[in-house]
């Protein structure tokens, strides 16, 4: 059968990324697009796809068996529900929706209709994240007691206001990128619950939404997590810094262009280790690319395996495989976001059991 993909919302993410998946995976075929913007409908047709300006007509397309919803965040819930009610599987762009309660309603429709519901959490396959997980699992720095995750960029305000600058659409940098980093943190150890949440945000150049965020989490085992997000930083923090009782390591950026391990008792492979004052380079070793399948290989910088998410969806459709990005995992992330925004509104620590 393979995955016959339909896309709702033919904007930059859909046309610039998702539409290119079929060129990398033969088991995925993009066949139809729906958008309410006539120019985007025309663009989809020019790209060779069946394009609909009517949602009803799009949902009647019998060839489509999986739909990606790539619209502003506040439309995810009603559109995903409509897709599942029409008998089709659905993946929404992140964040899944605007609250955990909304996601629970979407999960209920998925259960009732028997349709697959998931989220495009492609950052689980980022090279920096996989490398950090690998080095953490090797025990090179002993038991970790603190982890810092940072995504800081220099992106001054340009152009007119877009939907991500509007609160009602679920705009803001924390919704846009915080959801990725929170999902990564929670997937490090799914059994390690979040016990406290403290979020501080600032609106520096975007007056209605946040463009700076600092999130602090305390986990059940005592692990301390800090997440930094900013759009106006010339010299960003390392993408990851992990502190252990026997040493520390960092990952410089998304492409793993450098990184250092300083260890009291262990030699490290996978990044750079300072040894007698001289940095020693090692290849980046990536393991556990997909749940249940272990791969050990060396990759060039920038080799993130994002297509693995789509490969899993095709396997789900064709063979009934286990879904990797599970609704229950997404619900946990949404509960964390809810607690974080509550903390930002009140200025207080929120105690949780997430």
From TrEMBL:
Domain Gfo/Idh/MocA-like oxidoreductase N-terminal: 4-121
Location of the Gfo/Idh/MocA-like oxidoreductase C-terminal domain: 135-350
A single GO molecular function term of this UniProt record: nucleotide binding
A UniProt-annotated Pfam family: GFO_IDH_MocA
Gene3D superfamilies membership: Dihydrodipicolinate Reductase, domain 2, NAD(P)-binding Rossmann-like Domain
InterPro entries linked to this entry: Gfo/Idh/MocA-like_OxRdtase_C, Gfo/Idh/MocA-like_OxRdtase_N, Gfo/Idh/MocA_oxidoreduct, NAD(P)-bd_dom_sf
Domain of life: Bacteria
Record's signal peptide: none
Family as reported in the entry's similarity comment: Belongs to the Gfo/Idh/MocA family.
Name of the protein this chain belongs to: Gfo/Idh/MocA family oxidoreductase
Organism of derivation: Luoshenia tenuis
Source organism phylogeny: Bacteria, Bacillati, Bacillota, Clostridia, Christensenellales
């Amino acid at each position: 059968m393979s995955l016959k993909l339909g896309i709702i919302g033919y904007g930059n993410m859909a046309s610039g990324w998702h539409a290119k998946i079929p060129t990398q995976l033969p088991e995925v075929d993009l066949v139809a697009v729906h958008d309410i913007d006539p120019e985007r409908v025309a663009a989809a047709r020019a790209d060779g796809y069946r394009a609909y300006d009517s949602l009803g007509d799009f949902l009647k397309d019998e060839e489509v068996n999986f739909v990606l919803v790539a619209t502003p965040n506040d439309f995810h819930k009603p559109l995903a529900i409509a897709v599942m009610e029409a008998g089709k599987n659905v993946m929404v762009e992140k964040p899944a929706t605007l609250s955990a309660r909304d996601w629970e309603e979407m999960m209920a429709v998925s259960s009732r209709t028997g349709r697959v519901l998931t989220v495009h959490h492609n950052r689980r396959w980022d090279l920096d994240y996989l490398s950090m997980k690998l080095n953490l699992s090797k025990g090179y720095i002993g038991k970790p007691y603190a982890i810092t995750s940072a995504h800081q960029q220099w992106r001054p305000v340009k152009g007119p206001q877009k939907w991500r600058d509007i609160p009602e659409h679920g705009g803001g940098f924390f919704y846009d990128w915080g959801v990725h980093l929170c999902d990564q943190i929670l997937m490090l150890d799914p059994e390690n619950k979040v016990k406290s949440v403290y979020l501080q945000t600032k609106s520096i150049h975007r007056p209605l939404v946040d463009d700076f965020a600092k999130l602090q989490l305390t986990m059940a085992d005592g692990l301390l997590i800090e997440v930094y997000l900013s759009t106006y930083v010339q010299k960003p923090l390392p993408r990851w810094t992990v502190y252990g009782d026997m040493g520390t390591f960092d990952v410089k950026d998304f492409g793993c262009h450098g990184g250092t391990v300083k260890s009291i008792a262990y030699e490290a492979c996978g990044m750079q280790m300072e040894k007698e004052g001289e940095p020693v380079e090692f290849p980046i070793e990536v393991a556990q690319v997909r749940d249940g399948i272990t791969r050990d290989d060396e990759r060039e910088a920038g080799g993130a395996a994002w297509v693995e998410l789509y490969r899993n969806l095709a396997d789900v459709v064709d063979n009934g495989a286990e879904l990797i990005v599970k609704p229950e995992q997404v619900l946990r992330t949404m509960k964390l976001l809810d607690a974080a925004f509550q903390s930002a509104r009140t200025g207080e620590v929120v105690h949780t059991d997430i």
